[in-house]
Amino acid sequence: MSVEGSGGPLPVVAVVGRPNVGKSTLVNRFLGRRAAVVQDVPGVTRDRIAYEALWNGKRFTVVDTGGWDPRAAGLGASITRQAEHAMRTADVVVLVVDSSVGATDTDLAAARVLRRSDRPVLVVANKVDDERSEANAAELWSLGLGEPQPVSALHGRGSGDLLDLVLDALPEAPREQPEAGGPRRVALVGRPNVGKSSLLNRLAKDERSVVDAVAGTTVDPVDSIVTLGGEEWRFVDTAGLRRKVHTASGTEYYASLRTEAAIQAAEVAVVLLAADEVISEQDQRVISQVVEAGRALVLAVNKWDTLDEDRHAQLEREIERDLARVRWASRVNISATTGRGVGKLAQHLRDALASWETRVPTAELNTFVRALVQETPPPARGGRAPKIKYVTQADVRPPRFVVFSTGFLEAGYRRFLERKLRERFGFHGTPIDISVKVREGRGTDRRG
Question: Which residues partner with 271 through β-bridges?
Answer without folding.
Answer: 189, 299
